[in-house]
Amino acid sequence: MEVLKKKILSQGTVIGSEILKVDSFLNHQIDVKLLNEIGLEFKKRFANQEITKILTVEASGIGIACIVAQYFNNVPVVFAKKHEATTLDAGVYEAEVFSFTKNKNYKIKTSKKYINKEDKILIIDDFLANGNAALGLISISRQAGADVVGVGIVIEKGFQKGRICIEKEGVKVESLAIIKSLKGNEVLFE
Amino acid sequence: MEVLKKKILSQGTVIGSEILKVDSFLNHQIDVKLLNEIGLEFKKRFANQEITKILTVEASGIGIACIVAQYFNNVPVVFAKKHEATTLDAGVYEAEVFSFTKNKNYKIKTSKKYINKEDKILIIDDFLANGNAALGLISISRQAGADVVGVGIVIEKGFQKGRICIEKEGVKVESLAIIKSLKGNEVLFE
User: Fold this and answer.
1) Could you give the ipTM of this predicted complex?
2) Which CATH number is A97's domain given?
3) Distance of CA B34 to the CA centre of its chain
4) Rounded to an integer, what distance in angstroms lies between the CA atom of residue A116 and that of residue B129?
5) Among A51, A60, B92, B161, fewest CB within 10 Å belongs to which?
């Protein structure tokens, strides 16, 4: 997706050889016009697929998922919660996720009320690196007996193992920008 | 806003006399069509106001803010972060917020890069109770020298002191549903 790649090149910041910061348009400040272009692109990538729900994880995924949902007949968005929430029901599906950025395990949880076996789920997230968050969301969907139609990612770190792990689960991955390397402070796309 | 009030009455759950759960359409599962109606209503409430940025706080505020931004010429959304983020810059504005739901203090932070003194800010959040999150966002805006045009709230607990505290700061509050009481498991609107 050319407009996204241009944005990454002009506004992204590379830290070390593994971290790409896109705080200025994706996960701290959000460019809503760009999110609409992203929504349109995901609609093309998952054309003719029946999708009943979009699943993501807080926090950065939520804004993307809400705008993307507009391109899929305004299907409901459900976001898995990362932190113990006192207002969350006892009945939850949960999965353990390891965050490399924060170097710790955490649980993601979704109320059983909002995913069910009739659902055809599109998982949406900002980044794909080692695939832990996406695998957690696939696990939650399958605990509910739902079908996972695919995983839609804005930026994939192609040099990490996320895609392989998700495809091993038999799930299609569509990423709008795939990064081959961040070495030498330079963003190279595949 | 009638459609919102109906949704609260049909899907909200009252817990005790102070907590209203709206997990099924606002802060766990999200009704994107309703968010669009909310965006349109905020546009009416803040008509003819110059707004350059929408500020909210993670996590539930993000989806609302992104959809609302579409009704304000796709201005950028900035969300304050609640948790220590390793990828956040050293240069931040921060405010201390007390959460009654979680009974503890936490800091909210926004990178100095994304709010500046030219900004006219609309603060958006899902709930207004004691006003702590909104006051924190007003403080962050003012640290940056920005103008706060107003605070737009989806559901206000009118029996708590949030509105008074914000109006004391000289900031206009617009809430789309104001709850007078949650006593006896019943939602009464003002």
Assistant:
1) 0.95
2) 3.40.50.2020
3) 16
4) 33
5) B161
